Each structure stands twice: as structure tokens, then as C-alpha cells.
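quick one, two chains, predict together pls
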Amino acid sequence: MVVRDKMKIPRLTTLISVAALVVLALFPVVGVSLSWLNYLFIFFIYLALANMWNLLAGYSGLICLCPHAFVGLAGYTLAIGTWLGVPFQAGLIAGAIVAALFALLISYPVFRMRGIYFAIGTLILPEVLKVWFSYWRPVGNVYQGMGAGYSVTGVAGVTLVDTYWLGLAIAAASIFLVYMILKTKLGLGLTAIRDNENTAASAGANVFRLKLYSFIIAAFIMGIAGAVYYIFSPRINPTGGFSIRWLLVPLMATVIGGEGLEEGPIIGAAIVTFLTFRLADYGAWSLLIQGIILLVVVTVMPQGIAGLLRQVGAYRFPVKLFQAAEGRIHKS
Amino acid sequence: MTETAVLSLDRVTKSFGGLVAVKDMTFEVQAGEVVGLMGPNGAGKTTLLNLIAGVYRPDSGRVLFQEKDITRCAPHKICHLGIARTYQIPQPFTHLLVRDNLRVAATYGCRKGDASDLDEILDLVDLSKQKGTMAGDLATVSLKRLELARALASNPTLILLDEIAAGSTEAELPRILDITRQVRKMGKTIILVEHVMKVMVEAVDRIIVIDKGEKIAEGTPGEVMKDEKVMAAYFG
């Protein structure tokens, strides 16, 4: 009985996930308004970032405060690439690869630090990059006497619908990736390291290497998500590309949604997206309001919304429904 | 060095700042042997285990395991070679299930992926009923057992036990002794650090007594107890 349930239920969940993906993919075709596609696109980008941040902070114990380094580097790679005649599709991959290589490069120094020291160590990196890209201008005319901004050229033909699909693909890939990692040996090792690095090492886990895998994977996906954003909004400058917003979004989404829980970033990214648009009119006040929401969530539900839902047993009814449905399918 | 020595330390010294924690330590452990490490608080017993497990690197001297020099090996490498250890203060993976705690060691330890006898290990340490419990929710005594279970799950040749009986009641001691005997029967070589005399005397073949980082006596439990230096170290 138990074995059968275990084998059957994933099939129904797979079915539902695939159905949700298909419905979302069909949105532009069935005439969902452009403003909704716009909202959803931002949600997808935020979701991909949040999923990867959750992989690092929630499952690997790496409080990584440099997602904006990965986003900015990938965005700049894409922009500079298009100036050199590289098609944007290749630019996306190149951007992700540059972000991943950057992660590899910094891994040795930053992994020597643990916990809060690792966090602070990573936080300064985007600031360094911000300064670097303010002075460095490899292609194009000198701009206001220094490096600074680029527009992404050659993407005029890319419509919102195209970027919507790209965003959807990356968000779906990020969910699937985390799901797969957690099922494998790598996921087991990462959660062990998160809980106790010394014990993980004495149980035979190569702590440095496992952390590096998760760091590089996260950098790659964050990079590609950032690059897709800069196709949607084809203009990058140091303060925008390396903006702390790219850190706050995944951090808030993960913490509000539920760190270390698979569904956490999905809930959190939806809330953060909603807030971004809802509070856009309030200017600087929006940051204050988001900060207050974060404070309330952290104090009232330390495990985030998903943690609270699990605690009160909100999933019990849907799971029962699931099992009933499974039972019926099995009988027929 | 004799042929059957599983582990041998050759004039190992380790100091922290001005404090010499372990000084010129030399001893051998034979295959299948149970060796006890004894000494007053701060004598350097745990430091010695950390030196063997690769957590610390000696300032001088060598550590050989199955005739291989492991002096400069990282902790995970040493685990792969076949040395597992428990911690004096339990260090579980708190947010993983008891069974998954073992799976980590089974997956990454000395055998690569074979997790078939995890249930037997859980049985041995009386944790079968709690295998679906979050490790962070276990009581202290169970956590001590989990330490041992995790060490066994990595399938070691040599197992370093750091005070597994500490904190147990008198009534629990026979069971701990029984478990130790069974681990021995599995063909494991054991180094035991223990303050509980009953466990020490009944479980081990040989005791090495250290004080202020130096070996002051070595022999069977009976011999060691009569040694004047040992009495002096303990009772002044």
C-alpha cells in the first residue's frame, strides 16, 4: 500500500506540474493581456533567482550575498556581446558561463570563511565590480568620460512574448534543478554540510567540492536569469546591473516564503513580485514597507509562510485529496 | 612496526600557541584491538583523536594508517581510507532524519553508496524506532548512539570513540559495553576515550594513559591501575 502510494503520487504531481507549465506557456497564445505577461515575466525571473538563493542558503548553508554580481556580470556579458555582433541567444549562455566562472574564481577565498564571514566576504564583491564597470569600457565610444552603461543591441525584434517564454523556461528549469539536486547524493551532502560542516567532513564529504558545485550551479542560473531580464529591459549600467535589488529580491522571497523548503521561493517570489508592482508608486516608502513586512514575517513565522502552512497542516487536505484521486485512478 | 599495526603514531607533537597539547606521542594499535585512552581532563585525549582524524595537523611526527602516511590528509580523505570518529559532544545533522544522518556517512564514507546494512546498524544502537525522527529532536543518550551509528555507517576499519558512555546512567552501561563488544565482533579496531572506569576496564585490551600531552603508562587495565605515575596524575 505504502509502496504503491509512493510510486503513484509522484506521477500525479508530475502531471499537475506539466499541466501548469503548459497552461502558463499557452498564456500569450490565448490572449492574456500584455501587462499580465509583464507581471508574470518578472515573477519568473524573481522565482529563478529565489530558487537558486534557496539552494545556497536553505540547502547548502551558504548565505551568499552576491547574486547581484552574477546578474550584473551576465548582463554586461550579454550587452558587450551584442556590441561585438554575438547573437543574444549565445550572449545568454555566455553571460551565465561568465557568472559561473566568476563563482569558481572567488570560491577559494570566500569558502575559507564560514557563516557570517562568508556572507560579508561575498557582499563586497558586487561593489568591486560596480566600480570596475564604471571605468572599464571594452567596446563602443567612451561614455561620459568613463565606462558605465551599455544598451543591449540587436534585440529590437524580441517581443515580450518571447522573453515571457524564456523566463518561464528558466523558472521551470530552476524548480526542476533544485528538485533533482535534492534527490541525488549531492543534495544529501549539501544538507549535511548546512547542518554541520565538521561532521560532514568526518563522514567523508568533500565539503569544499560540494559547496563549489552548488555555488557554480546557482551562479549559472542566476546569471542566465539576469541576462534574460536585460533582454526584456535592454539597458544596463553599473548601478542597475550590480544593484542590491538583485540580492534583496531573492533574499526576501526566500525568507518570506520559507527557507530550506521547496515551495518557499514560489510563494515568496509571488509576494515580492506583487509588492514590487503594488508599491512602485510609493517610491522610497516601498522599501520601508517591504522591510516592515520582512520583519513581521521573520518574527511571527521564522520558517516563512511555507513553514507556517506545514505547521498548521494546510497540506493535509490537498494530500488526502491527492491520495483519494490516486486510489480512484488505480481502481479503474 | 609490526605487520598487523593498523595505526601507528610516530613522535607526534602538536601545540597551540605556547601550550603543548600532545608531545612526542608514539604508539601502535593492532588490527582488531580495543585500545583505551585515559587521562585527566585536558590531558590531550581529544586532541589526539583530532590529530588522527585529520582535524589538526601535527607540528612534527607522523601518523600511519595501514602503512600509509596520513599525517597531511584532510578529514574526508581519512574517512575514505577507513577511519571514522564520534564526537564527545554529539554533532548530528540536526535537520536530517536519523536514517539520513546515516545515509550521509554511507554515501560519502568508505564504501561508496552501499546502504544495505543501515537497518542493522540502527538495530545495534537501538535507534530503529527513531529512524524517521529528526536528529535534532533526539534525547542526549540517543544522540550519543547516533554518533556511533554514523561512524559505523561509513564502514570504517578503525573507529575512534570519544566518550560514548559519558552522561549515561549506571543502568545503561551494560548495554553500552554490549554494543562495544558487538562492534568489535564486526572486526573493527577501536580507540576509546572514556572517563567511565567500568567501561574502560571491561571493554579494552590495553590502556594508554596520557597526562599533559605525554604518555605516562601503557598496559592492560590491571597493570595500569597499579602504576604509580597514573595514581599521581589522577590523585596528585
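The mean pLDDT of chain B is 89.
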